[in-house]
Design brief:
Blueprint lengths: L1 H18 L10 H8 L4 E2 L2 E2 L14 H9 L28 E4 L5 E5 L2 E5 L31 E5 L10 H6 L4 E7 L3 H6 L7 E4 L4 E3 L5 E5 L18 E5 L4 E4 L8 H9 L2 E7 L14 H11 L1 E7 L13 H10 L5 E2 L7 E3 L19
Parallel strand pairs: 5-6, 6-7, 7-8, 12-13, 13-14, 14-15
Antiparallel strand pairs: 1-2, 3-4, 3-16, 4-5, 9-10, 10-11, 11-12
C-alpha cells in the first residue's frame, strides 16, 4: 500500500510539474476572457464550429484510434531516405518579390506587397511538448530563426503544438512586428514575453488592414484548439489575404464544411489556396481534410492553385508519410487544379504574372 501511495504521489507531482511548464502557455483571463465570452462562437465555456463537430467521426472509437496510431505497425510511416530540400536565402530576398517558401508541415514564409509574413512556424524539430517525441523527419528541419529576416506579421492559425511552437516563438520575439491570431491565443504570447500592443486577436468575420495595402479577413475553420488540459478555449481560424491583384487563402487546420463555399462566394476567385492535406484519419475527417476533401474545398473556394500542407515533416497520423501528396496528385488528374508542390525551402513565385509559369516536381516519388 505504501509503495502504491508513493507511486501515485509521484505521478501526481509529475503531472502538476508538466502542466506548469511555460511551453504550455496560458489560459485567457480578465479582459481577454470577457471578450471571448462576448463572441457569438463561444458557448458553454468553449468555442464552437459552424457545424456541430465531434472529435471522432461516427463509427469510430478512441481505443481503435489509439491502437491504429500508437500500437499497430504502419507501413512506410517514416521515410527511409532523407527528405530533399533546397535553402532559399530569405534574408536577401528582394522585398519587391512576391514569393512563398514552405518549411514543411504547415509552416511557411510569405512575402506579399513588400510585407514579410510568417505562418505557424515550427523550427524546434518536434511537434510535441514531450521531449524526443513526434520528431521531424531527417532533412526537414532546414531552417532556423537565424535564417529569417525581420518579420512584419506573424500569423497563427491555432494553438496546437504543431502550429504554435514555444521554442520558435520565444526565439522570434525580437524579430516579429505584429502577431495576428484568433481570440485567446494572445494569452500564450503574453506569457512568453510579447507585449500586448504587438498582439492582434480577432474573431471570425472580422478584418484588418496591413501595410502594403493588404486586407486581411479572418474566417472560420472546422477544427479545435487546446494545450495542456484546456480544450477549445482559444479560437482557431483561417485567413484571406487580399491585395489589388492577388488573393491567398491561409486555411489552417480544417475538416470540410460550408465555410469554404462561404469564403469562395465572398472573396473568390482565390489565386492560391493553402490547404490542410495530411495527418488525417477517417476518424478525424470532421477536423482534418482528406485528400478528396481538399479538392472539394478548392472547388468551393473557386481556387486556381492549391498548395497542400500539413504533411512531409511529422508522423502525426496512421498513414504512409507520402500518402497525402500521392493521393492528392492522383485524384487531381480528374479535377485539374494547379498543384503547387515545392521542395522544402524552394521559392514559389506569386502574383498574377507568375501563376502557371513555374513547374514543380513530384519529389516524394524519389524518396523511399
Amino acid at each position: 500500500m505504501g509503495v502504491a501511495i508513493l507511486l501515485f504521489a509521484g505521478l501526481a507531482l509529475a503531472t502538476v510539474l508538466f502542466l506548469r511548464q511555460e511551453k504550455l502557455g496560458a489560459s485567457p483571463r480578465g479582459e481577454r476572457l470577457e471578450r471571448i465570452r462576448r463572441s457569438p462562437h463561444y458557448r458553454d465555456g468553449k468555442f464552437r464550429n459552424l457545424t456541430e463537430t465531434p472529435l471522432l467521426s461516427e463509427g469510430h472509437g478512441w481505443l481503435d484510434v489509439l491502437y491504429r496510431n500508437y500500437v499497430a505497425t504502419i507501413p512506410h510511416h517514416h521515410p527511409t531516405d532523407t527528405i530533399p530540400s533546397v535553402k532559399t536565402d530569405l534574408r536577401n530576398l528582394p522585398t519587391d518579390a512576391d514569393a512563398l517558401v514552405w518549411f514543411g508541415h504547415s509552416s511557411y514564409f510569405l512575402q506579399l506587397a513588400g510585407q514579410r509574413i510568417l505562418v505557424d512556424p515550427v523550427f524546434s524539430g518536434q511537434a510535441s511538448p514531450l521531449p524526443g517525441t513526434l520528431k521531424a523527419f531527417p532533412g526537414t528541419d532546414v531552417y532556423k530563426v537565424a535564417d529569417l529576416p525581420t518579420i512584419d506579421y506573424l500569423f497563427i492559425s491555432h494553438d496546437h503544438y504543431d502550429h504554435l511552437d514555444y521554442e520558435t516563438i520565444v526565439a522570434l520575439r525580437d524579430k516579429v512586428g505584429t502577431v495576428i491570431c484568433g481570440l485567446g491565443v494572445g494569452s500564450h504570447f503574453e506569457r512568453w514575453g510579447y507585449a500586448p500592443d504587438r498582439i492582434v486577436e480577432k474573431d471570425w468575420y472580422e478584418a484588418l488592414s496591413l501595410e502594403g495595402g493588404i486586407q486581411v479577413y479572418v474566417e472560420p475553420a472546422r477544427h479545435f484548439s487546446g494545450r495542456g488540459l484546456s480544450s477549445a478555449n482559444t479560437l482557431w481560424a483561417s485567413y484571406v489575404l487580399q491585395t489589388p491583384t492577388y488573393t491567398v487563402y491561409l486555411g489552417g487546420d480544417s475538416g470540410y464544411d460550408r465555410h469554404y463555399a462561404d469564403i469562395g462566394r465572398k472573396y473568390g476567385p482565390i489565386d492560391l489556396a493553402i490547404l490542410d492535406n495530411g495527418q488525417y484519419d477517417e476518424a478525424w475527417r470532421e477536423v482534418h481534410n482528406l485528400p478528396e476533401d481538399v479538392l472539394l474545398a478548392a472547388r468551393d473556394l473557386r481556387a486556381t492553385s492549391i498548395l497542400p500542407v500539413h504533411s512531409s515533416k511529422f508522423p502525426l497520423a496512421a498513414h504512409p508519410w507520402d500518402e497525402p501528396l500521392r493521393k492528392l496528385t492522383e485524384l487531381n488528374e480528374a479535377s485539374n487544379f494547379r498543384l503547387v508542390t515545392p521542395l522544402i525551402g524552394e521559392r514559389v513565385d506569386l502574383g498574377p504574372d507568375s501563376d502557371g509559369g513555374q513547374a514543380f516536381s513530384r519529389w516524394w516519388e524519389r524518396v523511399r
